[in-house]
Structures are given as structure tokens and as C-alpha cells.
Automatic annotation (TrEMBL):
It comes from Phototrophicus methaneseepsis. Pfam families: PIG-L (PF02585). This is PIG-L family deacetylase.
Length: 257
């Protein structure tokens, strides 16, 4: 199985869509697990970041329901990929004793809160809970590199190391978090926090790029955050994911000593 760990609903499609489509089309067993996919909390934290995001997304009364629908459409665009959601809330909704852990835009980056419950919950979540199999032959785990240093990406990155260390038969790859990879300095900064990595490129076809772009377009609530309009997605994706004259996505293979 090829297991893609996506911190949020869009991350796997944005960063690995060409790879996912190609593997799935080649009759590989592919699954996308969205980690921070928990339901909207009640009560909702009344913070500047929640207010800003809900206004920006324009995703209705319950944005999580809308975002799941977007994600389901994206998985269909990538060839009907298997997917599942973990019941951990997005960082903007997580609290400790009723106090929001990440109340502002600035708090979303670089530093995971020491009382963040997501860290402990993932530490208690084994690989079997994601795959429902003990057969690790050919198992590959794909996780965010942490480019951009969003706290949810950092948490999933560390969990991926834990999964790999507990399951040495499985191979671990880190993917380049899009759109943060537009900044090459952010990639260098993320690499500092890793060990024993070998860079690789996964090249794919025009049809795979078209499927990736179609999947990216499904996340309509996210367009205003990253692009001036939906039409800009195509050119940006083609430019960002062209390496050495071919469409490709970047990975780093973890080789434990």
C-alpha cells in the first residue's frame, strides 16, 4: 500500500496529486489519510484566525462538511482513490482547557504548542489503524516535509517518523509541501529538521498533471488563499511541478541508519 498522510484536506492532492493519480492508475493500492479532519467543535473558538478563515473560505455554516465534499470530489478526480479521515480537529479549532492554542495567523507557524492534544493522540495511533493490514510488504508512507512550518504539517511529520521507526519494513518518503515550496529558502529551512534523506523525483504524464489540476480545482474554498482566481491554478501548478523539462513531484526518502 502507498499511504499518503495529508495534514489537511487539500495537502496530498496539492503536493502529490500527480504521483497519486499515476500510482492508482497503475493498479497500486493507494490511500490518502487526512489527519486533521475532525468535526467543527461546539462551542467554536472565537478567535481572529477562525473568523478570518471562515470569512475567506465562504464555506457555509459548517466548513468541515463543505471541505469534505471538496475532498471527495478531488479523490474522484485522481481516479477514485481510497481515503479516510481521522477525528482530529484543525489546529485553529484545538483548545486546552477551553483556551484556543492557535488563535492568530502568526501562531500557526514554526512552534507546536506544548499542550497540543493532537501530538499525544497521534502518538497512540498505530499504522494498522490507517491500513487495517499487518502485511507491510511494499508499504510506503508519504508525509509532509514541513516546508513552510505550519504546525499541523510539523505534527504529522514527526508522527511519520514515529510510524516508520515502529514499522521498519515500511519505507518513508517526505513530500514537498505545496504551495510553500514556491520559496526555495523554506525548503532549505525544512531540511535542517530531517535526517538521512535521499532526494528523488517522481515524474508523471500530461494526463496525470491534468488530473492533479482538476483535483486542485475541487478545493474551491481554498482558492482565495493561494491564487488570485481559479484560472491561475493551472499555470502555477505546471510551473511549480516542472523539473528538468518534465512534470514531477519532489520527495525525500528516509534511510534509517
Amino acid at each position: 500500500m502507498k499511504l499518503f498522510l495529508s495534514p489537511h484536506f487539500d495537502d496530498a492532492a496539492y503536493s502529490c496529486g500527480g504521483t497519486i493519480y499515476t500510482l492508482n492508475k497503475g493498479d497500486q493500492s493507494v490511500r490518502v489519510v487526512t489527519v486533521m479532519a475532525g468535526e467543527l467543535p461546539d462551542p467554536l473558538p472565537h478567535t481572529p484566525i477562525v473568523e478570518d478563515l471562515h470569512q475567506r473560505w465562504q464555506a457555509g455554516y459548517d466548513p468541515i462538511v463543505t471541505r469534505k465534499r471538496e475532498d471527495e470530489a478531488a479523490m474522484r478526480a485522481l481516479g477514485g482513490v481510497s481515503f479516510r479521515y481521522l477525528p482530529i480537529g484543525d489546529c485553529v479549532y484545538r483548545t486546552d482547557n477551553g483556551v484556543a492554542l492557535y488563535p492568530t495567523e502568526e501562531s500557526l507557524w514554526d512552534n507546536v504548542h506544548p499542550h497540543d492534544p493532537a501530538v499525544a493522540r497521534l502518538a497512540e495511533t498505530p499504522l494498522y489503524a490507517l491500513t487495517q493490514t499487518t502485511d507491510l510488504l511494499g508499504m510506503e508512507i508519504y508525509a509532509p516535509m514541513g516546508v513552510g512550518a505550519h504546525v499541523d504539517h510539523l505534527i504529522v511529520r514527526q508522527w511519520a517518523y514515529r510510524l516508520a521507526d515502529a514499522n521498519p519494513q515500511a519505507k518513508l518518503y517526505f513530500y514537498a509541501d505545496y504551495p510553500y515550496i514556491r520559496d526555495s529558502a523554506a525548503i532549505d529551512k525544512a531540511l535542517v529538521h530531517h535526517r538521512q534523506l535521499v532526494p528523488e523525483l517522481f515524474s508523471f504524464s500530461e494526463s496525470a498533471m491534468n488530473a492533479k489540476i482538476a483535483a486542485m480545482r475541487c478545493y474551491r474554498s481554498q482558492v482565495s488563499t493561494f491564487w488570485p482566481d481559479e484560472e491561475a491554478i493551472d499555470a502555477d501548478a505546471r510551473s511549480t511541478f516542472t523539473y528538468e523539462g518534465q512534470f514531477a513531484e519532489r520527495y525525500w526518502h528516509y534511510i534509517p541508519v
